[in-house]
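re: ur question from yesterday

yeah so i grabbed the chain u mentioned. its 134 aa long if i counted rite. heres the sequnce exactly as i have it in my notes:
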Amino acid sequence: MRTEVITVRTGGAPVVVDITREAADFVASERDGLLNVFVPHATAGLAIIETGAGSDDDLLTAIDDLLPAEDKWRHRHGSRGHGRDHVLPAWIPPYATLPVINGRIALGTWQSICLVDPNGDNQVRQVRFSFVAG
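ran it thru and got these structure tokens back, copy pasting raw so excuse formatting
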């Protein structure tokens, strides 16, 4: 198994960051196997979605609709509504496992690997790529 950690700057507002290129670079020298992507944070997740056509913004809107940033959350440290950020990984998990075939991630035509970070309190995230040969 081979592993690498990258740093992603997410800024101070909720964001969806496409990390497909970084993942593709990580597996480019491999053959067949599995890529595991993991975000070791309690308030971020990973989604396989289309980006650039509004779906990333739609995802953030859906998160706000499902998990509003209100003061109703029991987990109360950080900015207003931060408790919802700690619930997010139950719906958008902090991991994804993807097939790699001949050094290429086997994504669908419009699919991208995205870091989903609704938490503006943490502006830098780590993402761990691990490759297991098949």
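noticed a couple things. The helical segments are 20-27, 55-66, 82-87. also The first strand starts at residue 2 and ends at 9.
anyway ttyl
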